[in-house]
Design a protein that fits this description.
Blueprint lengths: L3 E12 L2 E13 L4 E5 L6 H8 L8 E9 L2 E2 L5 H7 L4 E4 L3 H4 L6 H12 L4 H14 L5 H4 L9 H13 L5 E5 L7 H18 L2 E5 L3 H7 L2 E6 L2 E7 H6 L4 H8 L18 E2 L6 E2 L14 E14 L5 E15 L4 E5 L6 H8 L7 E6 L2 E2 L5 H8 L2 E4 L3 H4 L6 H11 L5 H14 L16 H13 L5 E5 L7 H18 L2 E5 L3 H7 L2 E6 L2 E7 H6 L4 H8 L23 E3 L9 E5 L2 E4 L3
Parallel strand pairs: 3-8, 3-9, 6-7, 7-8, 15-20, 15-21, 18-19, 19-20
Antiparallel strand pairs: 1-2, 1-4, 4-5, 9-10, 11-12, 13-14, 13-16, 14-23, 16-17, 21-22, 22-25, 24-25
Helix pairs in contact: 4-5, 5-7, 15-16, 16-17, 17-18
C-alpha cells in the first residue's frame, strides 16, 4: 500500500472575483523509502500542494477538493484536533523560510525540544541530548553552546539547518521538504542530502522534496513531478525526466539549468542561454566584456568585524564572533568580484560592513579614494548614493504598504536628485530597464512574483545611479529560469552602466557565469582569490576543491564523490582578547593567491 496517495487534488483561493484554482486536478503517490521531487517555477503550485497535504491552509480562504490518503486515513476528513496528531508524528515538514517558522523569543534548543517532547515519549533531559545530537548531525558548530541562541543570532543558512534538524528528529513516516536547501551553501547542502538519505534508509522514510534546483533533484529523487501554472504536467522516473522529458516546458526548464564548468577556457562572464518556453529552443548566450583596468573603484584593506557574545553581568563580552577577519581586496569599474563560502563564513557581514550597516572593528574601505569608515553621517549618506545593495529576500526588502511607484521615487526625492515629475519619468524608465512594464508602477509588492520583486529591488538600487552594486544572494531563492533572467539582467546593466559589482552567492554555477574574479571565504577569512577561470578550473586550496566537488550535477547518472566530513566544523567564536594568527599568501598564478597557513 502507498504511504501517501493524492487524487484529483484541486485547491482554490478566495478572491474578490470568487474562487480561483491554484492547483488543478493533481494526482501523485509516494511509497515507503521513496523520494518524489516536485519541480516547477515560483507560483506553479508546488508549496500549495505540500500545505494542502499538511492541512495548513486557512479554511476561510482556501478550499481543498479531492482525496489525500495517508495509508488508510483520509486526511481531508479528519477533525482539526486529529490532524494535529498527524503533523510531526506521521508527517514532518521543513519549511522554506526558517526565520518566519521559528519563534523569535525562544532559543532554538527549546523549540527543538518542544517538538521532540510533543511527539516522542522521552523526558526533557533526553530531548535536550537528542536536540544537541541532531544539531551536530546537520553540521552546526559548537552545538552544545549554540543551542542556547535565539533565531536572530544565526545566519539564514544556520537557521535552515535548525529546521532540518527539528524535522528529522521526529522520525515521521513522511518528510515534506519545501526548498530545504535553498539557503544552504553547496557543502552543507551535500551533507544535508546525505543525512536525509541516511535517515531515509534507517527509517524507511518517504520524502516529498520540493525544489527548483535540478542538480539536487538529479541527486536525490527516485521520481519527479513537474508542475506548471497550477497543473501537474508529467510524472516519471528521474532518469526519464532528465534524459527524455515529455513536454516542452520540462525541456525548457532543463535547458535553463546552469552547469558548473560550462565556461571552462573562457575568461569573461557569459549570459545564460535564452530559452523559449513554448518551443524549448535554446540560443547561446553572448559573452560579456572583460573587466575594466585602471585605478580600483573600491579598495578594502584589513577589514575586521566582530560581534560580542556570552556577556557577563557588566555587559562585557566574554567571547567574540570573528565574523570578518583582516579581509582585503580591490574592485574596478565594470568588474564583478564574487564572494563564495559556507553560510556563516562572513560573506554578508562584508557587504554590510562596506555600507556601515555593521560597524567594523578596524580596516579601511576606500571608495574612489575616500575612506568610508572615517566618514561622518552626512558624508556617509552621500557615499551610500554610490553604493547600493540588493538583498536576498525581495519581499522583506520592499515596504508592503507602498506602491512600486513610491518605492522607486522615494530615494530620488529624498536625495533631491529630481522633482516629482522627473522622478515619475525615471521610475518608469527603470521599470523598462529591468524588463517590467511601467503600467505595473501602481501595484503593491504582493501583486508580483518573486522574480519580478527582485527586478524591482534591482531597479530601486539603480535609482541613485550607483557606481558599486552589492548583490547579496540576490538570485539564490529564485527558480532556474528566473535566476537566469535576473543574472543576465545584472550582467547587461553592468555592461551598459559600467557598474562594479560585488556578487555574494553560494551558487557556484551562477558565480562561474557572472564573475571576473572569485574570492573564497572560510571562517571570516579569504583563503583563495583570483580570476574566475583560475579559481574554479584549478582550485589551489583544499577547501575550495571541496566546495567545488560538492556542487550537485543535473544528471541522475552522475555519482557525487563522498564528501569529507572529518570532525566538527570549526567555530568563529573566540575568547575575548584572542589575537588571530598572521596569515601569509602565495601567488600560484597570475593574480591568483592562496592562503598558506590556514
Amino acid at each position: 500500500m502507498k504511504v501517501l496517495s493524492v487524487e484529483n487534488l484541486t485547491v482554490s483561493f478566495h478572491t474578490d472575483a470568487g474562487w480561483s484554482p491554484v492547483v488543478r486536478d493533481a494526482a501523485m503517490s509516494l511509497d515507503h523509502g521513496e523520494t518524489l521531487a516536485i519541480v516547477g517555477e515560483s507560483g506553479s503550485g508546488k508549496s500549495v500542494t505540500a500545505f494542502s497535504i499538511m492541512r495548513l491552509l486557512p479554511t476561510t480562504q482556501a478550499r481543498i477538493e479531492g482525496s489525500i490518503r495517508l495509508g488508510d486515513t483520509e486526511l481531508l476528513a479528519l477533525r482539526p484536533a486529529d490532524m494535529e496528531s498527524v503533523r510531526g508524528n506521521r508527517i514532518a515538514m521543513i519549511f522554506q523560510e526558517p526565520m518566519t517558522s521559528l519563534n523569535p523569543v525562544l532559543t532554538i534548543g527549546r523549540q527543538i525540544e518542544e517538538a521532540i517532547l510533543r511527539h516522542r515519549q522521552i523526558d526533557r533531559a533526553a530531548a535536550r541530548m537528542e536536540a544537541i545530537r541532531m544539531l551536530d548531525r546537520v553540521r552546526i558548530p559548537s552545538a552544545q553552546s549554540r543551542i542556547r541562541q535565539h533565531p536572530h543570532e544565526m545566519s539564514g543558512g544556520m537557521l535552515q539547518r535548525v529546521m532540518v534538524a527539528m524535522a528529522l528528529a521526529l522520525r515521521s513516516e513522511i518528510l515534506i521538504a519545501d526548498e530545504p536547501t535553498t539557503a544552504l551553501d553547496v557543502t552543507v547542502q551535500a551533507q544535508i542530502l546525505d543525512l536525509i538519505r541516511e535517515i531515509q534508509a534507517e527509517e524507511n522514510l518517504a520524502v516529498l522534496f520540493i525544489t527548483h534546483d535540478m542538480g539536487v533533484v538529479a541527486e536525490i529523487a527516485d521520481r519527479v513531478a513537474v508542475m506548471h501554472q497550477s497543473r501537474l504536467l508529467e510524472t516519471d522516473t528521474a532518469h526519464a525526466i532528465f534524459k527524455s522529458p515529455g513536454t516542452n516546458y520540462t525541456r525548457s526548464l532543463l535547458a535553463a539549468v546552469p552547469h558548473l564548468g560550462a565556461l571552462r577556457g573562457t575568461a569573461a562572464p557569459k549570459l545564460f542561454s535564452e530559452t523559449d518556453i513554448e518551443t524549448g529552443a535554446v540560443k547561446s548566450g553572448r559573452e560579456m566584456s572583460g573587466a575594466a583596468g585602471g585605478r580600483p573603484l573600491l579598495a578594502v584593506k584589513g577589514l575586521t568585524s566582530r560581534f560580542g557574545a556570552h556577556r557577563n553581568i557588566l555587559g562585557r563580552a566574554r567571547q567574540n564572533v570573528h565574523a570578518v577577519e583582516n579581509v582585503s581586496f580591490e574592485l574596478a569599474e565594470g568588474e564583478t568580484l564574487s564572494i563564495v563560502g559556507e553560510s556563516g563564513c562572513g560573506k554578508s557581514t562584508i557587504a554590510r560592513s562596506l555600507l556601515r550597516l555593521v560597524e567594523p572593528v578596524s580596516g579601511t574601505v576606500q571608495l574612489a579614494g575616500r575612506d568610508v569608515l572615517a566618514m561622518d553621517r552626512s558624508a556617509l549618506t552621500n557615499a551610500r548614493r554610490r553604493m547600493q545593495m540588493v538583498f536576498q529576500d525581495p519581499f522583506s526588502s520592499l515596504n508592503p504598504r507602498m506602491r512600486i511607484r513610491e518605492t522607486l521615487m522615494e530615494p530620488i526625492v529624498v536625495h533631491k536628485l529630481a522633482g516629482h515629475a522627473d522622478a515619475v519619468d525615471r521610475a518608469a524608465d527603470l521599470m523598462t530597464r529591468v524588463g517590467l512594464s511601467p503600467d505595473m508602477l501602481d501595484r503593491f509588492p504582493h501583486e508580483f512574483s518573486g522574480g519580478q520583486r527582485q527586478r524591482i529591488c534591482i531597479a530601486r538600487a539603480l535609482t541613485l545611479q550607483p557606481k558599486l552594486l552589492i548583490a547579496d544572494e540576490a538570485v539564490s531563492a529564485l527558480d532556474v529560469r528566473v535566476k537566469a533572467q535576473v543574472a543576465n539582467l545584472l550582467m547587461e546593466l553592468q555592461d551598459e552602466l559600467g557598474l562594479a559589482m560585488l556578487f555574494i552567492s553560494h551558487d557556484m554555477a551562477v558565480v562561474e557565469r557572472i564573475s571576473h574574479r572569485v574570492a573564497v571565504m572560510y571562517l571570516g577569512e579569504i583563503i583563495e582569490v583570483g580570476p574566475r577561470s583560475a579559481v574554479i578550473d584549478n582550485p589551489a586550496h583544499n577547501y575550495t576543491r571541496r566546495l567545488i566537488s560538492a556542487v550537485p550535477v543535473p544528471d541522475p547518472d552522475h555519482d557525487r564523490p563522498p564528501l569529507e566530513t572529518a570532525g566538527e566544523i570549526s567555530s568563529p567564536l573566540r575568547p575575548a582578547g584572542y589575537i588571530p594568527p598572521v596569515r601569509t599568501y602565495r601567488e600560484v598564478g597570475p593574480d591568483h593567491f592562496v592562503m598558506e597557513n590556514g
